[in-house]
Amino acid sequence: MGVLMVIIGIVFAVTVLPSEEKRVKKRFQLLSEWVSKSPEENPITMLQKMKDIGTLFFEPCELKAPHESLSGSYTRQEISAYAGSARSHFSQLGLKFYDLHIAFPQKEVAKVTLTARLIGKSMTGDQVDEIRELECLLKKIDKKWFFSQIEVIEVLKK
Amino acid sequence: MAVNRRIRQFFFPSLTPTLLIRVFLVSLFAYLFFGYVCTPFTIQGISMEPTYPDGGFNFCWRLRYLFSEPKRHDVVAVRFAGSQVMLLKRVVAREGEHVEFRAGRLYLDGKEVEEPYVRFPCSWNLPSRRVEKDCVYVVGDNRNMPIEDHHFGQTSKVRIMGVPLW
């Protein structure tokens, strides 16, 4: 009976209780949800999502994307504004993350390597399908994880 | 009656320890084989047309380069962070070679290379560049698009996951 209780306890701890890894994954899920856009999205939802996107980031957040003219340090407001501006060019947008490899190199720091895929339809009707490998650093503050650095890894170098 | 019993036994076998072991072994083999050796994938995009059309299905044979190196004209799957999303491209140059495009034609070390798999017109121009150590230069077969819109370039050999089965 005791052994059974221990097994049930371990299964409960592994599956139900949120681990740090699950908490980090949740931040990516939120980012994906808030960046994504449906054709029927109303202006209130759009404004709310713009505001929400900024809350996922550490201040300042460093972006390293030398080939996409995005490198630099950005505040939450700047990220929200940039995301809003970028989203306004699309009638439909979907951001998905694949192959998340999460490591904790230091206490309160998570390093995540992943593949990001952005699929959408621009306002002019063009299809967009962009894939990038990203290396993200997240910092933990008050039990919440925030994106502090995002680097685009160059897979193909022209 | 015996035939009926056999058919019933085939579709609804008794849950014996032998059957459970067989099911476990078949599942394990399928998981390992299709997860790590011969991975199924669908093609999304037009960069390898007409050789590999958009929407096609294939398997990535991941043991292809276990004991050999990618050769020029091989079609390879290049991974990003993992194997869930990969790029299907053709190797056009190997390490140390100088690759260049002039009016849509491929030049390696200054010599023009025939590419029978390129069927669509192309007008690309790309200055000569040397492929770095432990890298290969990959390009799609469909070059009937502006050079800026096509994902190609040199990539590390460790990113090559395998080749399409057909």
How is this structure best described in words?
The complex is a heterodimer of chains A (158) and B (166). Chain A is α+β, with helices and mostly antiparallel strands. Helices cover 35% and strands 42% of the residues of chain A. Chain A has a 6-stranded mixed sheet with strand order 2-1-6-5-4-3. The radius of gyration of chain A is 18 Å and the shape is globular. The N and C termini of chain A lie far apart (63 Å). Chain B has helices at residues 2-11, 17-37; strands at 38-42, 57-61, 75-79, 86-94, 98-102, 105-108, 111-113, 126-130, 135-139, 153-156, 160-164. In chain B, strand 3 and strand 4 form a beta hairpin. The chains are: A alpha+beta (158), B alpha+beta (166). Chains A and B meet through strand 3, strand 4 and strand 5 of A and strand 10 of B.
Describe the secondary structure blueprint for this structure.
The complex is a heterodimer of chains A (about 160) and B (about 170).
Chain A: H1 2-15, H2 20-35, H3 43-55, E1 57-64, E2 72-74, H4 76-87, E3 90-106, E4 109-122, E5 127-141, E6 144-153
Parallel strand pairs in A: 1-6
Antiparallel strand pairs in A: 1-2, 3-4, 4-5, 5-6
Chain B: H1 2-11, H2 17-37, E1 38-42, E2 57-61, E3 75-79, E4 86-94, E5 98-102, E6 105-108, E7 111-113, E8 126-130, E9 135-139, E10 153-156, E11 160-164
Antiparallel strand pairs in B: 1-2, 2-11, 3-4, 3-11, 4-9, 5-6, 5-8, 6-7, 9-10
Summarize the structure.
Chain A contains 4 helices and 6 strands.
Instruction: Evaluate the radius of gyration of chain B.
Output: 22 Å
**Helix content range of chain A:** 25-40%
Biggest β-sheet: strands ordered side by side in the sheet of chain B: 1-2-11-3-4-9-10
Could you say which overall geometry of chain A the principal axes of the C-alpha atoms support?
globular
Q: Looking across the biggest beta sheet of chain A, what order are the strands in? A: 2-1-6-5-4-3
Number of domains of chain A: 1
> Runs of chain B with pLDDT <50, length 5+?
none
